[in-house]
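Hi W., the flavin-adenine dinucleotide complex you wanted:
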Amino acid sequence: MKLGIIGAGPGGYEAALYAAQRGIEVTLFEKQFVGGTCLNLGCIPTKTILASTELYSHIKEASQFGIKVEGAEISWEQVQQRMLKTVAQLRKGVEFLLKKRGVRLINAEAFYLGDHRIEAGGQTYEFDNVIIATGSRPAELPGLATDKKWIINSNHFFTRKELPKRALVVGTGAIGLELSDILRAFGTELTVVELVPQVMPLLDSDASSNYARILSKKGIKFIVGNSVKTIEHKEDHLKVTLTNDQELEVDQIVVGVGRTPNSEVIKTDKVQTERGKIKVNNSLVTSEEGTYAIGDVAMPPVSRGALAHVASHEGIFAVKHILGEANEMDWHAVPWVVFTDPPLAAIGQTEKEASQAGLAVKTYTLPYRALGAAVAKNRTEGFCKFIVEADTGRILGVQMAGVGADLIINEMAVVLQQNMTVKELSEVIHAHPTLSEVAKESAFALLGYPINTM
Ligand SMILES: Cc1cc2nc3c(=O)[nH]c(=O)nc-3n(C[C@H](O)[C@H](O)[C@H](O)COP(=O)(O)OP(=O)(O)OC[C@H]3O[C@@H](n4cnc5c(N)ncnc54)[C@H](O)[C@@H]3O)c2cc1C
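Structure:
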């Protein structure tokens, strides 16, 4: 069986590695770097930089832990060097795996012609099945056209020689928030503007307020329910007027919102697109039988995040579907994390979504200061909100911010994937003292018997 995959991001390359191990002959087309946005311009660069900024902020608090540190400084140039080294190392690792597993990698821009045919480098290749995994790129927004200098996007951010002294970040989605947290740690005077009336539109409003309060205390100034109205170029800075007529003087605008799907790859009417994305059904099949689309470029019937782990899960699902081993994707338990300090993480339905779906819900929010482990670590800023079906106790969703949220959310993924109830969760023994006890304590509180809280 021959499989052609266009795009070697986390969706495409993981599908290729899995398919090759399942005995499929795989050809993978990539026009730039293996690893795609995630490894080269997204997840890994941001997390590598954030590892430095997090360590730096810990060092600055060292005296509270009985440690004397003097003269600690952070260097953007050196942090950037470390980031480039990390990306190169991981990219090599992917290239090595592809080679070892016998995946044929063709470094060229590819086009999908229909009937399972792919054109690249002047040649046409024929396959039994095709997976399109071409991902997305930063969108150019009206009134905020990037110029790589005054107005930049996430791609430009990583290559900047210097960070601005004063910046306006547009958007409080994951990208805008992570870039804001990096700028904050490097001492940039920061304002973040968000179009909708709350920070991080995907959260319930109470969780959003709790999270925004934590970041505001660290020096990030949010202006919500607003956007950029006009930008005036002064000699050495920008004068920005927001829609509420507030004026700001900044050295740079960082556009942290908007992605454009790379669907130009499609050169046939047989595969339909909608709003730039490739339409797929619950099995990730496009309007042409045997042709799949996954990850950021795909639009399934269920709205789910543009996330690396979604792309790779969908890639592996598509291969299983080709092999006749899978039927329909299940997106009800997709965790997501924003890697600010502290991280924000969520999964499942919000309270608002569950209520709108007609479910009677009850919720419980546990403050981090109730956790011994959080107090011991001097990281009591945080909360965990559970959304539960009132009559059955089934856990529908979790939204949390606090140290360790990026790990704890994976336990919540198991909980939601298994459709567990709060009673079942309360019966799971959690090691003490750990931050994961937030789950156990919340479960008991939801049963009406909070143990370590009132
Ligand atoms: C700043 C930033 C931080 C992020 N952080 C996270 C995070 O922490 N966690 C997370 O889950 N997600 C994160 N994301 C999102 C994540 O990067 C994407 O969801 C993920 O990369 C999508 O994977 P994909 O395989 O669908 O596409 P991509 O990773 O975009 O890969 C697509 C690949 O296809 C190639 N390609 C495109 N067109 C063609 C063509 N015609 N021919 C050949 N090759 C082609 C591209 O060069 C690219 O390599 C982040 C994104 C950004 C921008």
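Residues 6-12, 29-32, 36-38, 41-43, 46, 109-110, 133-136, 154, 175, 262, 265, 295-296, 306-309, 311, 339 surround flavin-adenine dinucleotide (CB under 6 Å).

W.
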